[in-house]
UniProtKB/TrEMBL annotation:
GO molecular function: DNA binding
Name the record gives this protein: HTH cro/C1-type domain-containing protein
Domain of life: Bacteria
Signal sequence, renumbered to the chain: none
PROSITE patterns (alphabetical): HTH_CROC1
InterPro entries: Cro/C1-type_HTH (IPR001387), Lambda_DNA-bd_dom_sf (IPR010982)
Domain HTH cro/C1-type: 37-92
Length: 126
C-alpha cells in the first residue's frame, strides 16, 4: 500500500501545477510544525499564544496543523517566535538540477527577530 501511495505521489509530482501545490503544502506543514515546537517548548497553550500574537486559538491550531489554507507569512511566524521567546534564522540552499536536484547548504542566513533565545534548540529535524 505504501509503495502505491509513493508511486501516485511521484506521478502527481511530475506535473508542474501539482509540484507547486505540493511544495506549498510541504512548506505550510514545515512552518506549522515549527510553530508547534516553539509553542510547546515555551509551555504555552494555543489560547495563550493566540492572545500574545493577537489572533484566535483556531488560527493557531490551523497553522500548526499545516491546514491554514495558505503558507503562513514570515511576519506571522516572526510574531509567534517572539511570543515564544525565539529568534528566527533563515538558511538558503542551492539546488543543483544538473546533479539530480541534489541540495548543498550555503553560508546564506538571515536573522528575522531579536527575541530572547530559548533554551531549546529549534534546528529543523527532517
Amino acid at each position: 500500500m505504501a509503495d502505491e501511495v509513493r508511486g501516485l505521489l511521484d506521478e502527481l509530482a511530475e506535473r508542474p501545477e501539482n509540484r507547486d501545490a505540493m511544495r506549498r503544502a510541504s512548506m505550510a506543514l514545515d512552518l506549522g510544525h515549527l510553530a508547534f515546537r516553539m509553542r510547546e517548548a515555551s509551555g504555552l497553550t494555543q489560547r495563550q499564544l493566540a492572545e500574545r500574537v493577537g489572533t484566535s486559538r483556531t488560527v493557531i491550531s490551523r497553522l500548526e496543523g499545516g491546514n491554514a489554507g495558505r503558507v503562513p507569512g514570515l511576519d506571522q511566524i516572526q510574531r509567534i517566535a517572539e511570543a515564544c521567546g525565539f529568534e528566527i534564522r533563515l538558511e538558503a540552499e542551492r539546488v543543483r538540477s544538473e546533479a539530480g536536484a541534489q541540495k548543498r547548504k550555503t553560508d546564506l542566513s538571515v536573522v528575522l527577530a531579536n527575541a530572547e533565545p530559548s533554551r531549546t534548540d529549534m534546528t529543523a529535524q527532517r
